[in-house]
Structures are given as structure tokens and as C-alpha cells.
Write a structure and sequence with these properties.
alpha/beta, five-stranded parallel β-sheet, two-stranded antiparallel ribbon, 7 helices, 9 strands, 38% helix
């Protein structure tokens, strides 16, 4: 059972309702006056994480993306953003309809905070917090856009955003991106090492704890904290650590196993 806080009421709502096995998600992108930016990125990411979480819990998902009229270059930029950030492409992309009619059947609507939407549209509303960036002279990467600063793994941006509850505003700084990139590199090395050890099952208590966090309003930051604890826990076998990280990467989408089988390769 997945429960999401409806932004209209603040109450947790079970999704999908009526014991169905298909979760219908509608991701609404705000108007892109200055091109595709960080706020679009976070809305897309939340829709992706919601779909991944539902699938981890045995549900099927259908994601519809609604966008305002975009020039061709912005459509192409949107496709690139989804590709480099590991966001699964939606099943359908539709033009924005002010009446909300095309997406009215969705179980969940994902929108940027402050976006207007008719209350008559059914389903749960999720408001995604704002994203800002510190200016370069304050240690930031500059204005938030779809391009990662030079030398930054794009998935470090994904990890940075996943480290905050989806309703919480996020300030992207150069230091935060460096730390996210360092953690990603470190975890990928560890996962590659653990993969060489005999496989062991994920500890039942960890599995239950993390699944419960995800099911309760998408507690992804709690899952990241759990992985940090598993990394340091000498009582968890290396093979179990590998299975734990690989399992929850199905939601995180951080490509944590990308170095498996490559760590011993030596360039001639």
C-alpha cells in the first residue's frame, strides 16, 4: 500500500484507490519562459521516483506528461534531461489543457509548488518544492538549468535532489554537488567490490524499514540514510550489502552497479 500526502488537504491518501493494480500518474510541467530549468527537472524526477516506487511494490504504472507549447529545441532539451538523469520516458506526452480534462483520470498529479490547477480535477495532488542555485561567487553552479557543471556526473544532481523531502525547497550549491558526486563514486566502488562476494539475502528488518519509508509519502531520504548505515555496518555481509544497494537502486536510479565487473580492468 502506498500513501501520499494530498497537497489540497495535507492528509495521507492511499494510492491507487479501490485495490487496483495500475497507478496513473500525470506530471504537469510549468511554463518554460526561460527554457527547461531545475524546477522542471525536479517535477519530472518526482514522477519517475513515484512510478519506480509503485513498481517496486508490485504495481503497474502509466505516466502522462503534460507540457505547454514548447519550441523544438526545448523539446529536445527535455528529452536529453530525462535521458541523462535516468528518468523513464512517459507513456504519453500531451499538450497542456487549461480545463484539465485530458489528465482528469489520473490517480496522482505532480506539479511544481505554486502551480494553479483546477480543484475539480480528481486524484491526489503532489506539490514539488522549489529549486534554487547559489550564484558562482557564493559557491554555487550559477543559474539552475539542465546542464550539470563541468565534471559533474548528472546523476549527482539526481542524488542531491533525492536527499531532500520532495516538498522541501532545495538550494543547489557547488559544495553540495561535489559531495553528491563523491558519495556516488564511493558507493559505486563499494558495490563493485561487494559484487565479488557470495550473495546474501537483504536483512529482513532493513527491507521492511526501507519499503515502509517509501510507502509512506515517498521517504527517499530515509532510504539514503539507511544505505549509509548499511555501508558502515560490519554485521551485514558484503553480499547482503550488494543486494540491498542493488534492490533500492531500482527506485533511486543512481546506476550504483555500473562498475561491477570493471574495477579490475587495467588500461594498456
Amino acid at each position: 500500500m502506498l500513501r501520499i500526502a494530498d497537497a489540497r488537504t495535507g492528509r495521507l491518501v492511499e494510492i491507487p484507490s479501490a485495490h487496483r493494480h495500475l497507478l496513473r500518474i500525470c506530471v504537469h510541467l510549468p511554463v518554460a519562459d526561460n527554457g527547461i530549468g531545475a524546477v522542471h527537472l525536479r517535477v519530472l524526477l518526482l514522477g519517475d521516483v513515484l512510478a519506480r516506487t509503485a513498481e517496486l511494490h508490485g504495481l503497474q504504472t502509466l505516466t502522462v506528461l503534460t507540457v505547454h507549447d514548447l519550441p523544438r529545441e526545448q523539446v529536445q532539451a527535455l528529452d536529453r534531461v530525462m535521458a541523462v538523469l535516468g528518468i523513464h520516458p512517459p507513456a504519453t506526452v500531451r499538450a497542456h489543457d487549461p480545463s484539465g480534462t485530458p489528465s482528469a483520470a489520473a490517480d496522482v498529479h505532480v506539479l511544481a509548488h505554486g502551480t494553479d490547477q483546477q480543484d475539480s480535477v480528481g486524484g491526489v495532488r503532489i506539490d514539488v518544492g522549489r529549486v534554487g542555485a547559489a550564484p558562482p561567487d557564493e559557491g554555487g553552479p550559477g543559474s539552475p538549468d539542465t546542464a550539470a557543471p563541468e565534471g559533474t556526473d548528472p546523476l549527482a544532481i539526481r542524488m542531491l535532489l533525492l536527499g531532500h523531502a520532495y516538498r522541501t525547497p532545495v538550494m543547489v550549491t557547488g559544495a553540495a554537488l561535489v559531495e553528491a558526486r563523491r558519495t556516488l563514486r564511493h558507493w559505486r566502488h563499494l558495490v563493485a567490490d561487494w559484487a565479488q562476494e557470495p550473495s546474501r539475502p537483504i536483512p529482513v528488518d532493513l527491507l521492511r524499514q526501507a519499503h515502509a519509508a517509501l510507502a509512506d509519502n515517498l521517504g527517499v531520504p530515509a532510504v539514503l540514510d539507511m544505505l549509509r548505515s548499511v555501508e558502515r555496518d560490519a554485521d551485514v555481509a558484503a553480499g547482503a550489502k550488494f543486494e540491498t544497494f542493488a534492490h533500492f537502486d531500482r527506485v533511486l536510479g543512481l546506476d550504483l552497479a555500473c562498475e561491477v565487473g570493471h574495477q579490475d580492468q587495467v588500461t594498456p
